[in-house]
């Protein structure tokens, strides 16, 4: 949450470089944006509410040192004043922040008494005044360190000063990655934003403070006081993967990449899945944990493991995992599933599980992310950078990897490859013109409805949950995903003439019972949209999905993505940046 980008180097258009970096990070927060640049011993700040759009920073002076921020508001409303960067009273220190300064009130009261003047309602502004206060009696770097140590919560800050030709950055919990490129250095909250400049990066660890100039980056752990030698990593992503190309938006690009990604995962071999399966076999307690779409991957994983390998797994939503800890032991294995590897609810779960001695395995998309580093075993999802706030290819990537793992657990790894290859083909068919336009047409019919219900059983239950999530988060139509059997236990009361119901009916043991759910809807006037391998008279609309065995959940999810996407376009909304949300949720 919140995008951070910084540049220091020989180029004099630092503010423009930073603004371009912020555009690449805007999915992290888009309530407001701001840039600060140092020039001739002064700091110049431009900040505005809303998305960056076609805004420029041409009015900022030439500079070789600048930083910027895109905000997802926590403390203080969405106003120009509350946008970052924030400056101290003298205007010689500027700061951007990601996280929450939990005990800011106590310091704000003290600083007000000392005569500091505040211009915003944010917790962030308190940090910069605290640094200003401490800097009266110590060097600025010490003041930054002291202020950071006073802060409770999980935070990342970057500080600029007219007195320095470097940034001072510190993180604890919130992500920060340094990018190195001969004679110029960068800082960002997400590695994908660094791709136009460099692939050589260092992910700052917790409590590491970096003093970054154009040619140097000095890193020190503020808890131990020890110097840290940056173990640089090379990003494996390509710049084109992080660009829209000819697509209208990132969501359509990412939806269309899926058959290729799934085919690649199928072709990548089963060695890793077999090695991890061998470890999992030994554990008495297996947990699958995720948030949002990744939590639906966890539910699907539970079904896949039990159906294919006869292996039980416990599932938990990241933010709820803390209430499931009693049975964790040193023998437990927790598979933490996350696209970004930075979701705070997941990282907190991992911390708690580790404290109980459990082993952490990560199913994660971002190499070098915090979750990646915390885990003993890592499976990279391999979906490439995902930029649309609503997850698409990362989820189908997670489902693909879990399918391989389930077959490896069952001792039939080749069957996993086969099933995934079928899923990749089935996804390709969904994305072909005829299917695509049928789904677009359907979206045109549904664009004014108030509610949509989605139903499924077994592996189609998480598909139904994901379909409802995609619809509500980007089209803002209320949607509810249900286990089909639950209809009669309450939700049927809401069905009236024309209520749309999407029923997932793959060719598996759930077909008959799922159909019964669709019929219950129909009998009460519901408008039934069947997503299945064959048509049925109960369907008012039919979307064909070719069977891919237990991996049919993958093309089913893709149908849901396309429908949500076209509903969003039909309602004139932005699919990439839905209101009130952000991609990487780094607060609790
Ligand atoms: C946010 C995103 C969702 C995503 C969830 C978990 O809410 O908008 O699309 O599923 O975070 O993110 P993660 O990076 O942990 O998979």
Automatic annotation (TrEMBL):
Gene3D superfamilies: Glucose-6-phosphate isomerase like protein, domain 1, Glutamine Phosphoribosylpyrophosphate, subunit 1, domain 1. It catalyses: D-fructose 6-phosphate + L-glutamine = D-glucosamine 6-phosphate + L-glutamate. InterPro entries: GATase_2_dom, GFAT, GFAT_N, GlmS/AgaS_SIS, GlmS/FrlB_SIS, Ntn_hydrolases_N, SIS_dom, SIS_dom_sf. One of its GO terms (molecular function) is carbohydrate derivative binding. PROSITE patterns: GATASE_TYPE_2, SIS. Residues 276-415, 442-578 form the SIS domain. Its EC number is 2.6.1.16. Residues 2-215 form the Glutamine amidotransferase type-2 domain. Keywords: Aminotransferase, Glutamine amidotransferase, Repeat, Transferase. GO terms for biological process: fructose 6-phosphate metabolic process; protein N-linked glycosylation; UDP-N-acetylglucosamine metabolic process. CDD domains: GFAT (cd00714), SIS_GlmS_GlmD_1 (cd05008), SIS_GlmS_GlmD_2 (cd05009). This is Glutamine--fructose-6-phosphate aminotransferase [isomerizing]. It comes from Candidatus Gottesmanbacteria bacterium RIFOXYB1_FULL_47_11.
